[in-house]
Amino acid sequence: MSVNAVKYKLYPTLLNVFDRFEKGYIDENELLNRVNRVPVPQTEAQKRGASFEEAVIKGMDEDLYDYQILEKVRALLPRPMLKTQVYCEYQLDDVLMYGYVDVLGKIMAVDIKTTSKYEPGCYAISHQNFYLPALRGKGIRSLRYIITDFKEVYFEDYDHTLDFAHQIQQIKSFCVFLETHRDRITDRRIFGG
């Protein structure tokens, strides 16, 4: 943990939106709306993903999903599962990264993902990987993404040897964006407040 004062408070989903902005998938106004937490209706895919996670972990509405897919996902979870929806934070210079990991085991944390199309290795540059150093003090040695496209189940494991260069560069670029557009940001919590 750094001793620098926190200037920015960022979470992985917001940085994923910034990544989409950098790639030209969304425009500046859409990004600023997300920074300002302008409410947007949840998509069907988002609803299905949240519902799937509840089915896997809590057994709620299991009948909505293929039982074999549920079992494959459950087989990849740590045993015992110590906690679910665990808050994590990690300070990198003057940036506080924060969020929630889905499942915490003794030495492994897990995040469950749903997608329409899976590409192997796509989570190697995820900002959620900062959960690894955030959870090191709790004995966590690896972060596993369990991914399903509802036809098959995949997983990616990452450990403390992961290179964060891409994520760090993107965080720096995002902080420059925030400063450049400071006058258009109404949700001041992002500035450490």
In short:
33% of the residues lie in helices and 23% in strands. It has helices spanning 12-22, 28-35, 44-58, 67-75, 131-135, 165-180; strands spanning 8-10, 83-92, 95-104, 108-114, 142-148, 153-159. A hairpin with a 2-residue loop joins strand 2 and strand 3 (95-104).
Report on this structure.
With 193 residues, the protein is of the alpha/beta class. It has one domain: Lambda Exonuclease, Chain A, CATH 3.90.320. Helix content is 33%, strand content 23%. It is built from 6 helices and 6 strands; from the N terminus they run E-H-H-H-H-E-E-E-H-E-E-H. It has helices at 12-22, 28-35, 44-58, 67-75, 131-135, 165-180; strands at residues 8-10, 83-92, 95-104, 108-114, 142-148, 153-159. Strands 1, 2, 3, 4, 5 and 6 form a 6-stranded mixed β-sheet that branches. The radius of gyration is 17 Å and the shape is globular. The mean pLDDT is 93. This is PD-(D/E)XK endonuclease-like domain-containing protein. It comes from Dyadobacter luticola.
List the helices and strands and how they pair.
Elements (H helix, E strand, L loop, with lengths): L7 E3 L1 H11 L5 H8 L8 H15 L8 H9 L7 E10 L2 E10 L3 E7 L16 H5 L6 E7 L4 E7 L5 H16 L13
Parallel strand pairs: 1-3, 4-5
Antiparallel strand pairs: 2-3, 3-4, 5-6
Helix pairs in contact: 1-2, 3-4
Protein name: PD-(D/E)XK endonuclease-like domain-containing protein
